[in-house]
Amino acid sequence: xxxxxxxxxxxxxxxxxxxxxxxxxxxxxxxxxxxxxxxxxxxxxxxxxxxxxxxxxxxxxxxxxxxxxxxxxxxxxxxxxxxxxxxxxxxxxxxxxxxxxxxxxxxxxxxxxxxxxxxxxxxxxxxxxxxxxxxxxxxxxxxxxxxxxxxxxxxxxxxxxxxxxxxxxxxxxxxxxxxxxxxxxxxxxxxxxxxxxxxxxxxxxxxxxxxxxxxxxxxxxxxxxxxxxxxxxxxxxxxxxxxxxxxxxxxxxxxxxxxxxxxxxxxxxxxxxxxxxxx
Length: 279
What we know:
With 279 residues, the protein is α+β, with helices and mostly antiparallel strands. The protein has three domains: 3-70; 81-153; 189-264, no CATH class. Helix content is 18%, strand content 36%. It is built from three helices and 17 strands. It has helices spanning 3-30, 52-70, 157-160, and strands at 37-42, 45-50, 81-84, 87-88, 93-96, 102-103, 108-115, 119-126, 134-138, 143-151, 193-201, 206-209, 212-215, 219-226, 230-237, 247-251, 256-264. Strands 3, 4, 6, 8 and 10 form a five-stranded mixed beta sheet that branches. It has a four-stranded mixed beta sheet with strand order 13-11-17-15, with no helix packed on it. The protein has a three-stranded antiparallel beta sheet with strand order 5-7-9, with no helix packed on it. Helix 1 runs antiparallel to helix 2. The longest helix is centred in the first third of the chain and has 28 residues, at 3-30. Residues 32-36, 45-49 and 177-181 have low confidence and may be disordered.
């Protein structure tokens, strides 16, 4: 049942209930008649009605109850999200501010990239972007932030020699993998809680909703949403048996992985045929 239909039923039922209650109050204030029917009017025009107002009121309440019953069931909510902060290269520096890597949903986290000697901070990648050494995040999903550092050690004269007319070096290109491997053991999960990790392949092909830290035994619905220009293809890992559906349900009795694979939409190029040129 779509959310629009549920909202419509709620509003329609509320209007019916309000109308029934209003008619009932008006009839009891101004009505003349027995208990079985009321009449209302002014001057020579009077209208007799039965207790239809009660039927309208009860009908409105019933419609609202049906709408509440049709409301989509809200699954278990994550008790926390994970924040991974690797550095590239690992000896180039570190990221402070992540704490234990486990954060409450909705919490604000400020990270700072700190280069080591002979390195400088270059830029962020992953769930942070930009060249400023500080980055602020709202923890509404599992996040991974990659800090990129560059060496400041000068090359030897022979290695650094280059023609004067040569073009400036191109910026370093970093291709992020579909997921940055951060060992689960690096997160100190409390007893009775497990981590649901979402993986997107290829990176940028879409998103996977539902990742986070959950209480043991929770049944979590995970959904794969394709990005523009992509289609969902299949699940793997702990969602493999749901391969034909973009939704997957997992029971959190251990740490789980939901791996979604997307494919790029390729539009075939059609070349119109031409008639041969006749002399």
